[in-house]
Specification:
single chain; 137 residues; alpha+beta; Cyclophilin; 8-stranded antiparallel β-barrel; 8 strands; 20% helix; globular; DUF3830 family protein
Length: 137
């Protein structure tokens, strides 16, 4: 069985645990990782959305599902809008109250204080590369 990980250029490694309440997005992520193991992208701060960072990823999921959830630290959402196609990572609980429209498809496992440090670093010092890895057990 495969496990998925997210690693940040300046430190921070987290396991990605898929949420099957978004079955189409979770399946699209798995398929993306089959073809793009070692995928790298520039992760930027999405401060307009609160304590969020994001990176582009063409997962191919077009449907909206599992979207009416309040983001919290460690949640991974996918924005299926073809103009954005981004994975959104919430590194804190500060999020504006508004309509939820992204797909909650996974949660990060690991040191959440370290995730907050990564998010703060990207917010204050600028973007850095994130690498997605698939590892077989």
């Amino acid at each position: 069985m495969a496990k998925y990980f997210m690693e940040f250029e300046k430190g921070g490694r987290f396991e990605i645990e898929l949420d099957y309440d978004a079955p189409m997005t979770a399946a699209a992520f798995k398929a993306f990782m089959e073809e793009n193991n070692g995928y790298q992208a520039l992760c930027l701060q999405g401060r307009f959305s609160g304590e969020e960072m994001y990176f582009p990823a063409k997962l191919g999921a077009k449907e909206r599902e599992n979207k009416n959830t309040k983001p919290c630290r460690g949640c991974l959402y996918f924005n299926p809008d073809p103009e954005w196609s981004a994975v959104c990572i919430y590194w804190g609980d500060e999020t504006p109250i508004r309509e939820r429209y992204h797909n909650l498809f996974a949660h990060l496992k690991g040191d959440m204080e370290e995730l907050t440090e990564v998010g703060t670093r990207i917010w204050q010092k600028g973007g850095e590369t994130v690498v997605l890895k698939r590892e077989d057990e």
